[in-house]
Amino acid sequence: MSDALIVADLAVARGGRTLFENVRFIARPGDVIVVTGPNGVGKSSLLRVFAGLGRIERGSVERPGGGVALMDEAHALDRGATVQAALRFWARLDGGPDPTTRVAAALEDVALGDLADVPVRLLSAGQRRRAALARVVASGARLWLLDEPANALDAAALDRLAALVARHRGQGGIVVAATHQPLAWDDVQQVRL
Amino acid sequence: MTGLIWRDVRSGYAGGGATLVVAFFLLVAILFPFAIGPDTALLARVGGGVIWAAALLAALMPVERLVAPDLEAGVLDQLAVRGGSMAAVAAAKTLAHWLAFAPPLMLASVIAGGLLHLSGATLLLVEAGLLLGTPGLAALAVATAALLAGARGAGAVAGLVMLPLAVPLLIFGAGAITGGAGGLKLLAATSLLLVAGAPFVAGAAMRSAME
């Protein structure tokens, strides 16, 4: 297993209809890929294929070692649980040392430290988004897949998102983000669908 | 996986889920004396079968909450991203569902047995049967929940999908009350078959619902 995400001549279909084809790029450690394109062109499906959830029509995807973390529309946090308990559930499944500390650190990263003991159902849309981002941060995975990461985030949260992405690539991580709105991130590779 | 089982057991008891199952079970069991009349001998004769029929209907109650909320919230996606096989997830959900629904049901059966004037020996056979049969029932409930996750009006269809498949459990479970050890063995075999096979069906159903 290499340490790069290698996408070769990828075609993805959904419901019998080909969404896109001939997508190819290589993302090496430290790279950030921003997938752009209009609604419905298949950005989310592409990310789901990278996450191992979607079916590949043609071509191949070779994923880097070191784990994958996906953030999409669904936050996947138990509504009745507190923010930190819900995140700890995933941190434990991710394995690795000391999930409690990892979750606490990730919550500080997304500025949700004060809301750690609040039930998930009481969070606003933007706060839920940040909690989902904290799940990605706490996972310790090398490849981050962020689907519309800027949705529902305010200006301060957008800055924190950019800082987290910069930190992750600095640590040799790879980020693939799908977005229909411009992201003010430096030095990214654009993939247009 | 123990984390997932623990989480599902807790969510099974939280929000009155288990209480609802028990209340429904007891309600069905209470309806029979009203319908048949207070003939203790007759009640004692049909009582074991009544408990089984009530258990089957009560097992339907939580079907809508077993898989669909996790599919919607993206929990299944996140489990799959972490390399969890959906069949293993279904097996974990089956175990968790059994832990959340069988013990309260078996306790409630003692009360229902009293209402139906069951003898101690009969009640013992009913309880032994429930212990053997409820794992199969739980596996069937998870498979049904997985097949119907994402479908509209799943609650109404759930009974149509699940109850015919649960008929062997009902036959051997109620049959064990008169048939004794032979009936219990057949019941255990049926239950084992369901526990072994249903998670693969449920896993495939969850997988296709995610795509």
Describe what you observe in this structure:
Chain B: This is Heme exporter protein B. Chain B: It is a multi-pass membrane protein. Chain B: Pfam families: CcmB. Chain B: Belongs to the CcmB/CycW/HelB family. The complex is a heterodimer of chains A (193) and B (211). Chain A has 193 residues and is α/β, with parallel strands linked by helices. Chain A has one domain (5-192): P-loop containing nucleotide triphosphate hydrolases (Rossmann fold, 3-Layer(aba) Sandwich). Chain A has helices at 43-50, 83-94, 99-109, 125-139, 155-170; strands spanning 5-14, 17-27, 32-36, 58-62, 68-71, 143-147, 174-179, 189-192. Chain A has a five-stranded parallel beta sheet, sandwiched between helices. Chain A has a three-stranded antiparallel beta sheet with strand order 2-1-4, with helices on one face. Chain A is globular and about 45 Å long. The relative contact order of chain A is 0.22. Chain B is mostly helical and 211 residues long. Chain B is 88% helix and 0% strand. Chain B contains ten helices and no strands. In chain B, helix 3 packs parallel to helix 8 and helix 7 runs antiparallel to helix 8. The longest helix of chain B has 30 residues, at 86-115. The relative contact order of chain B is 0.16. Chains A and B meet through strand 5 and helix 2 of A and helix 1 and helix 6 of B.
